[in-house]
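Weekly sync, protein design subgroup
Attendees: M.S., D.O., the rotation student, P.L. (late)

Item 1: inverse folding check
M.S. brought a backbone from last month's batch and wanted to see whether the design step gives back something sensible before we order anything. D.O. pointed out we never logged the input encoding, so this time it goes straight into the notes. Structure tokens as presented (422 positions):
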């Protein structure tokens, strides 16, 4: 995915000339390296500002690589076709600048190694020149395009018409405004309390607000994705597993699913993924809501990583800020699940109504990234097994009145549904 995005960026001559001479190709797939070399040859021969993949494919197969096997031809043909798609300006700038930084860091490390080995090198002057070159190659974009332009009429219409993704539970629907791009919401509970069921239940209503071609993207790295898909089937049809089986036997299941908005939910298993891989997917999909379940398990590729003398809570704070920024950059809302620490189970009050500071592996970092925190508590009393306790200890999305929502609701685990109190 990253190599493909890179090829889409480097088909432009300006990007190619600035980035490729210092590109550390050792980290790339060998096939990507082949195409990059051929991109350079084609750009030099044609003088075009951007490569059109049709003519390039002819040049590639008829002049440069006539001895390829059928499998190789098929692979390169598909890869070249995929390069036709353009990359938006923000992603181009992000990746181009990261590559410039990587090249600079690699060069400086090599110079430092040579200096420490005793080579005759003016280390300060050499690194200074490379620093200036790197700064000159950093893409800043059109400054004028960075100015915030907002129409107060449009913003007020959003509020007046309750535009956005609306919650289904009555206490949340009436106490919160709908979710809009850039909103970052944490869904927090102890394990096996019902976070996944809560999200599946709420997506039934939220998906009704999506336009054609708009989707919810659910990144899952907790268990098997097919279990989440099953929960979604149950939520959208309001059925138990046994009832779904009966509908399948009766031949009505497919038609009933097609009559819902189930197809607007895209579940992606992202076990062992890092933040760069996640962002590449988001950049490709017209998503209006991203679900991270669980965000803590995504490998963070920011400037603060494990193994660099950073505390876990500091790394997670940076990771949650990354997820929040994605929502702003790609114009979607975010629902992220987070665990509550075991300390809340020591008292009945905190079991049901966990405080804001009770998040696992966090002092204030996770909480600081959130616009809204929805706590889901449960009681140890067996008579209250079907009750859940919804509270919002942090709430910047209040629709007026008291921002601290506190409501007992029901949970129907067999139908993946949260229910309003009778």
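Designed sequence read out in the meeting:
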């Amino acid at each position: 995915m990253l190599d493909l995005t890179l090829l889409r960026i480097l088909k432009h001559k300006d990007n190619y000339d600035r980035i490729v001479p210092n590109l550390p190709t050792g980290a790339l797939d060998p096939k990507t390296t082949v195409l990059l070399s051929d991109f350079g040859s084609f750009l030099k021969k044609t003088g075009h500002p951007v490569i059109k993949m049709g003519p390039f494919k002819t040049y590639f197969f008829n002049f440069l690589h006539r001895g390829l096997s059928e499998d190789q031809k098929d692979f390169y043909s598909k890869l070249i076709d995929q390069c036709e798609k353009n990359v938006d300006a923000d992603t181009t700038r992000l990746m181009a600048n990261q590559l410039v930084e990587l090249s600079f860091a690699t060069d400086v490390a090599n110079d430092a190694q040579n200096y420490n080995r005793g080579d005759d090198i003016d280390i300060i002057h050499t690194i200074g020149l490379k620093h200036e070159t790197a700064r000159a190659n950093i893409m800043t974009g059109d400054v004028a395009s960075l100015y915030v332009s907002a129409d107060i009429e449009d913003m007020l219409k959003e509020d007046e018409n309750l535009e956005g993704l609306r919650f289904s539970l009555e206490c949340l629907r009436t106490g919160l405004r709908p979710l809009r791009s850039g909103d970052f919401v944490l869904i927090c509970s102890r394990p096996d309390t019902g976070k996944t069921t809560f999200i599946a239940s709420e997506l039934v209503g939220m998906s009704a607000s999506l336009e054609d071609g708009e989707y919810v993207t659910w990144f899952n790295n907790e268990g098997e994705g097919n279990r989440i898909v099953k929960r979604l089937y149950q939520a959208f049809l309001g059925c138990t597993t046994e009832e779904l089986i009966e509908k399948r036997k009766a031949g009505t299941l497919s038609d009933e699913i097609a009559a819902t908005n189930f197809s607007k939910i895209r579940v992606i298993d992202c076990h062992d993924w890092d933040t760069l891989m996640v962002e590449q997917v988001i950049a490709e999909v017209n998503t209006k809501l991203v679900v991270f379940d669980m965000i803590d398990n995504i490998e963070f590729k920011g400037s603060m990583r494990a193994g660099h003398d950073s505390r876990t809570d500091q790394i997670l704070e940076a990771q949650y800020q990354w997820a929040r920024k994605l929502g702003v950059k790609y114009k979607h809302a975010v629902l992220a699940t987070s665990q509550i620490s075991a300390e809340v189970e020591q008292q009945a009050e905190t079991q049901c109504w966990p405080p804001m500071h009770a998040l696992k592996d966090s002092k204030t970092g996770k909480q600081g990234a959130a616009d809204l925190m929805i706590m889901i508590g449960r009681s140890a009393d067996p008579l209250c097994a079907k009750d859940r306790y919804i509270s919002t200890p942090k709430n910047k999305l209040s629709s007026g009145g008291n921002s601290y929502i506190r409501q007992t609701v029901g949970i129907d685990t067999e139908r993946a549904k949260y229910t309003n109190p009778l």
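Discussion: The first strand starts at residue 184 and ends at 189. The first helix runs from residue 2 to 10.
Action: P.L. to compare against the previous round before Friday.
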